[in-house]
Amino acid sequence: MGSTVGRRAKYLLLLVGLAAAGCGTGSGNLSAGAGSGAATAIALSTAATAARQRTPTATAGGQCTTFPSDNIWNQDISKLPVDPHSSQYIASIGSQSFLHPDFGSEPAYGIPYNVVSGTPPRVHVSFQYADESDPGPYPIPARPAIEIGSDRHLLILDTQNCYLYELYAAQQSANGSWKAGSGAIWNLRSNALRPAGWTSADAAGLPIFPGLVRYDEVASGRIDHALRFTVALTRDSYIWPARHDASSSGNPDYPPMGLRLRLKASINISGFPPQDQVILTALKVYGMIVADNGSNWYISGASDNRWNDDVLNQLKAIPGSDFEVVDTSSLQINPNSGQTR
To answer: Which residues contact 35 (CB under 8 A, 6 or more apart)?
Structure first.
C-alpha cells in the first residue's frame, strides 16, 4: 500500500483497481451514452417503493440496481450518532467553505458513464498498475464517453449482467488498442469490497458510479444512495467501507478515506429550488462519503445537458458548517463486506 500511496502523491493519480468480484461473462451493445439517456435505460432510481427493492436482477429490459439493498451505499444514516471528532474534521475541510456541485450541463463538467447490454465485443486493456487491476476484458463501446480532463475516467455499466467497469486514465492508441492507469470490475449483485489496501478510480478504493448525482433520479424526486465528494487534505488511513488511503499525513484532524458526512437535519432547505431539494434531502438521509483527494466539498455527478446550471449553483450557498460527521461503525457486519446490519 505504501508504494501505491507514494505514486499517487507524486503524480496526483487517482487509480482504478481490482474489484473483489470477478468480471463475469456478460456483454452488450451500446445502448446509451453519458448522462441523458443512460439512467432512464437502467432505471437505477425510481419511486420510493422500487428503491426499497434493490436486489439486483437482470431483466429483459436490462434493468439493474446499484448493489444490494443492504449495501452501505444505500443505507439511511440520518439517525446514526455524530462522530465525536466531527467538529475537527469539519474545520479541516473548511467550515466556512461551501458545497460545490462538480457537474452540470456541459460535457466537460462531470463524470459521464456508458451503458451496454446484449453481446458487445470485449477488449483487452493494458494497465500501468496491473498489480491492482482486474485484467478484464472490458466491454468498451466503439465511441465511449470519457471524462474530460486529466483523470479520464471511463465508466461502463452492463445492464444485462449487472456489472460495473471503471477505468482510470483511459486512452485508446492509434492502432485501436486500449491502455489505462488501472481498472476495476464490480459485481452489482455483490456486497464484496476490494482487497484491503487496494485503490480504485477513487483514492478510497470505492466505485465512482454509485456516488454520482444523476439527472433522472433527481427528476424522479428521489436520490436513494450516498454521494461521492472530495477533500483536499486527507489522513494516511481509511475506514470502512474504504479500502485505501492516499496521504502521507497522520494529522488526526484530517478526514480518513471513507468518512461519512450528512447535512444536519436542522438545516432549512425549503427555500431551494425543487431540483436542489432532492439533492439536499439525499445529503440529510444518505449523506456523502470522502472518496478522493480534490477540491473541498465538491460533490460528483454525471454530466447531462438537461441540468439547469443556475439551479445547481444555488447549492453553493450551503457552508461546510451545515454538515456533521457520522459514526457508521454500528452498521458493519464484516470489514471485508459492504453489507450492513
So the answer is: 110, 112, 113, 145, 214, 215, 302, 303, 304, 305, 306
How many other β-carbons are positioned within 10 Å of the β-carbon of residue 57?
11
Which burial class, exposed, middle or buried, applies to 172 when counting CB atoms under 10 A from its CB (0-12, 13-18, 19+)? Answer: middle
Cα-to-chain-centroid distance, residue 305: 20
pTM of the model: 0.83
Task: Please give the Cα distance from 290 to 135 (Å, whole number).
Answer: 27
- Cα-Cα end-to-end distance for the chain: 29
Q: What is the DSSP string of 254-303?
A: SPPBT-EEEE-TT---TTS-HHHHHHHHHHHHT-EEEEEESSTTEEEB--
- Residue 182's pLDDT is 84
Look up residue 215 and give its three cell numbers: 439527472
Q: Report yes or no: 98 and 318 within 8 Å, Cβ to Cβ.
A: yes
DSSP label at residue 83: P
The 10 Å Cβ neighbour count of residue 143 is: 10
SS3 218: helix
Give how far the C-alpha of residue 244 lies from the chain's centroid of Cα atoms, to the nearest Å.
14
Segment 38-43 mean pLDDT:
34
